[in-house]
Design a protein that fits this description.
Blueprint lengths: L1 H8 L18 H6 L14 E5 L2 E5 L10 E4 L7 E5 L1
Antiparallel strand pairs: 1-2, 3-4
Length: 86
């Protein structure tokens, strides 16, 4: 599916998942995961955040069924743990 997306978006088969052709800070693999345009910097993932009952709540679109999405958390920004997986 990723290879088809590369072709559909005009990246070509040589584009790496770590490449960022539009320079927006999101590598191709994240552009794919969030269904954004890898060639348009203004194309950003629809991420919503809010504070609810003194806790941060983040909502994002899981656009691809062929990927596993994991949410990680840290209390010290050094040690991370998976707190949710689709």
């Amino acid at each position: 599916l990723y290879a088809q997306w590369q072709s559909d978006t005009g990246l070509g088969s040589g584009a790496l998942g770590t490449d960022d052709p539009d320079g927006d800070g999101l590598p191709n693999l994240l552009e794919y995961a969030f269904a954004t345009d890898p060639l348009t910097p203004a194309s950003t993932p629809p991420v919503l955040s809010q504070i609810l009952h003194l806790k941060l709540q983040i909502t994002f679109l899981r656009a691809r069924s062929d990927l596993t999405y994991e949410v990680l958390a840290s209390s010290d920004l050094s040690t991370w743990q998976v707190i949710a997986t689709n």
